[in-house]
Design goal:
Elements lengths: L5 H18 L1 H11 L2 H8 L3 H14 L7 H22 L3 H9 L1 H32 L4 H18 L2 H12 L3 H9 L4 H9 L7 H14 L2 H13 L7 H33 L7 H12 L1 H34 L13 H18 L6 H27 L2 H4 L6 H29 L1
Length: 433
Amino acid sequence: MTRFSPREFAQYARGLRSRLRRSLPDYRFFAYLAVLGPGIIAANAGNDASGIATYSSVGAEFGYGLLWVFIPMVISLIIVQEMCVRMGVVTGQGLADLIREQFGVRWTALVMLALLLANTGVIISEFVGIAQASELFGIPRYVTIPLTAGLIWWLVVKGSQKRVERVFLAMSLVFVTYVISAFLAKPDWGAVGEGFVSPNLNSEPNYLFMITALIGTTITPFMQVYVQSSVVEKRMDVEDLPVVRADVIVGTLFACAIAAFIVICAAATLHFQGVTSIDSAATAAEAFEPVAGVYAKYLFAVGLFGAAMLAMGVLPLATAYSLSEALGFEKGLSRSFREAPIFLGIFTTLIVVGAVVALIPGIPQIRLLLITQSVNGLLLPVILIAVVKLASNVEIMGDKKNGRIHNLVAWIITGTVSLLSLALIAKTITGMF
């Protein structure tokens, strides 16, 4: 009797499903629609509370002068995310699984510890973002934080994979409020277009710091973990690769467009008021009212609430996926507590810790974000190097490995982003002391 390894069995099952699809063309169309989701959710989760604060700061300090950064940023994020989803459909394994197999348990443990620390800090900041958004409407955090924590926990623990994904996709629609806010701010659209196509480079330390912060906010380790694990859980195969790639491209374009609209909104209001210092997204929302009106303020606050809610769900999931994969435990949104106690236990613990800490009066959000940003900055080069090495490994990827040009571009992106991340860490540490 032939014996299959887990990977061989997964490949056989995916091949069988592919043959079934080819015999049922109508089913294949609807199956393609079902593929959409992971790329859109992962990219939009990057526009979290800290990301919104960063984009607002960029617009407030430099106006439209850094909009050109979004063009290389979009290209870089698409390439990185595409490698992850391609690995997911080809191998049927999550990123942490592959890192453990190829680089060993010790290296995996170090990466997972850094990911756990960084994500825990960011989860706390998302709860703080929820509190700030609700307080703009006069609702105390002691009401909204427990309610939203309970809602996200119930959705993930009691819901199915399809239901969770649909809710997350619906949450992504709230980002449209930033588009409306930008139009209410009445920017100079000619200057906006010039900002995209005419880089105004200079060597000022803060200018370089803001470029680095933009990239570091947009390309984060948890996004790569989440998107690959989601593709694996949906049991996508090579037949689905074109649509999975489309999902990544659409998600990246949408998320980066929203980020650009936040910069435009802040530039049209705060920059031309002379407001250049933003300590949170809530501060930015309050500053919009004198120029763009109370509606812009509330639209911005609604966007902040939705963004924090989405990230508050995705971040604990990404962490639970990675730790469960690294430790070899059962995982999945369709699993019960009895079937996947470690996976759902990690998710529950992160939700509880984030909510409890965010309820502490006077929690130093900015310092917390600086620390977690530093940990993420150290972790990002490691994750990117692992992704490129895995995606170019012929033993793992077969004929779906990176081509020469693809690999060259991937290494250039990895090197550039890694250097910028290290520079951001140095600047952050210097600022802290």
